[in-house]
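pasting for the record
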Amino acid sequence: MVLNFTSFHRIRKTLAKPRMFIDLFQFHACYHGWKTTTTYFYVYPFPCIGHDAFFSLWSSKKLVLNFHSSTNLSTHYVERGNFDDSNDGYDRCGHNDSNDNMVLSSFGSHSGDCQIDQTHDYNGFGDVEELDEEEEEGEDGSDIDENALLVPNPSNRNREQRVESKRVEIEEEEFRHPLVREVCRLIQLQPDWNPKLEWELRHLLRSLKPRQVCAVLHSQADERVALKFFYWADRQWRYRHHPVVYYVLLEVLSKTKLCQGAKRVLRLMARRRIECGPKEFSYLMVSYSRAGRLRDAMRVLTMMQRAGIEPDLLVCNTAIHVLVMADRLDKALRFVERMKVVGIMPNVVTYNCLIKGYCEMHRFKDAMELINEMPSKGCSPDKVSYHTVMGFLCKEKMTKEIRDLLEKMLKYSNLLPDQVTYNTVIHMFSKHGHGDEALEFVREAEEKGFLVEKVGYSAVVHSFCKGGRMDEAKAIVNAMFYKGCIPDVVTYTAVINGFCQVGKVDQAKKMLRQMHKHGCKPNTVSYTALLNGLCHSGNSTEAREMMNMSEGEWWTPNAITYSVVMHGLRREGKLSEACEVVNEMIEKGFFLNPVEINLLIQSLCREGKMDKAKKFMEVCMNKGCAVNVVNFTTVIHGFCQKDDLEAALSLLDDMYLSNKHPDAVTFTTVIDALGRNGRIEEANELVMKMLSKGLAPTPVTYRTVIHRYCQMGRVEDLLKLLETMLSRQKCKTAYNQVIEKLCSFGNLEEADKLLGKVLKTASRLDAKTCHMLLESYMNKGIPLSAYKVASRMFQRNLIPDLMLCEKLSKRLMSVGKPEEADSLILRFVERGHISPQCQEKLLS
């Protein structure tokens, strides 16, 4: 046997590029001119070569078994054997290195093959990038039309069936397996990873069966962690994912918005010749839909076309669901018509999606027409079809239409309204606050022999309690006893909460005692509802005592319970007791959120207890509560209200030490306090410091600075500061505010100098500013200056207020300026605001 020229050329290229070493075994053999293709190297990997370590070291994502299509070797290993919980011989292709201390690359790369990272990185999972990959060849950026379907191809359908045959269900035993639990524990420790932990995880990974790897992926609460683990495991030495792992990961990602990760997994499967069926593409479509990327979701159809896969009914139904959820019902309807053209007939799931789309758009008649037409289209509606419409009819309180729908279920579809049907209607009516209608269906269901369970009654009771109709709710509870349906803790809690909401706390207490009498033990929610009622009725001290006796009553307060009592004491002004509740709450492991902290700080500040407010904030921060900038600003504002500026400035500096950087509101609070106390230079320095920190001044900042500078008459300094502030953040009304403030402080001369900057825009706000200056001149007895302001307004095509100008005209006449008075009225006449007859009257 001799090698031909092609084989020699390929071997020489391989030796030059060791990464392509596997192509060495892809040569052609010649027997006296007869050319065949050798297949033995695929069935028995490297039988005569002892350099399998060399192969593992140089393998990369470019390694692809690329045998000629004339043989059966183009089919991936998935089709060679059955799924048997093994690694399919990948360990035999790996490197038999006993030194497991070599550090491999950490989680996070999306490279699909074995690679060695010589760097010592023990950070565990790296970030999975969410950047868009390069578009496939020939793909443009145009929108995908809903008609983009292929003509059915029988070969593709057969391939789809082979892929479906590889699916397995992950049993509960796999999740409880010790190996799976230990791997999940190590994954959760990834922020504190070290070489030892990573070695343990690599060692366990090689012992995992494919089903157990799938169980690990399903066990992750954060799907991003599952994706990172998949990438990390895929790069480990002597390990390769079984195809079923890819399928399970795609299913996991379909429940998230990690659409780019799902797309990469699909591309990795294509590079490794792992069969993909329509179901895998439907997973990607759903992920795109969850991310709100409708165009990309529909582009999945084009991806399927280029992969040579025939869309089936599952993918089509997914596409219709995506269009319906995106409020593209018209496109969904056209898509269904296109399905019929290419031979994919809709089923009941297809029509149910369209029915939901009609209901979302409040087109109930069209939804009913579609249900009526379904039998003629060879697809009878099921209970889901009717229940979908019923749910939306319940929102609109359309009781008659629901009864007609129940009759149609029986008459046209032979679907008997069962207990599930009535429970659906009862719960939907109760959810939307229609208790009377829900109660009617409860009675109707009982008349027909259906048993309405506690859940149904509880829903009706909750609906009545929510509406404050406690007599009806209590009557239903008594009727439940009569019918042998003993209320549970949920029903009692709803009634207790209802009594508390209407202020009948005594009735709520009686209901709590009745619970004990009938053997129903109240839970934390029941007691919390009662404590909330006590606090809102002004009995916070009683609520505090009841919470202290919780151990004797065999219930445990939770974070909401403590918060309810704390706010009750705060509203009654019992701040010391409220702080004690907070300390007890923190000791039990419950932490206040910034809003609750701020409410208590505000109460302390209103009473002038600034030291206690500051101490309380520091205690919360030291014990791990989420103290934010708003809490610091509240305390600083309290110090400023007491004119304790030194304490406010000190706390402003402490914010940086606590890594809580002040915002523009914090700076504005201190600037206003400094200006109010005449420390205008320090206020100016603080403004410049705020700007140097990259903070943009807010409208409140502008108003504060303008007010304080105008109050002190430092207009020139104000204008310089405004130029700096406006270069950072524009404020169209800055100069308007300056003029108005100068007018209010009687500095009309400076206000008149700035009038030119205001009249540049000639807006309605500018007219208001001019009117204020004009009126100020008149109040000061300077009508001629007011006339000049009005004249400048006319020059900028701003029409002054007619009533104000009439007063000005009379003032001008009284001071001996008839020409100016006549000129002012004449300008109104020229612009059509005064008739000549009215002009004569005014002048007379």
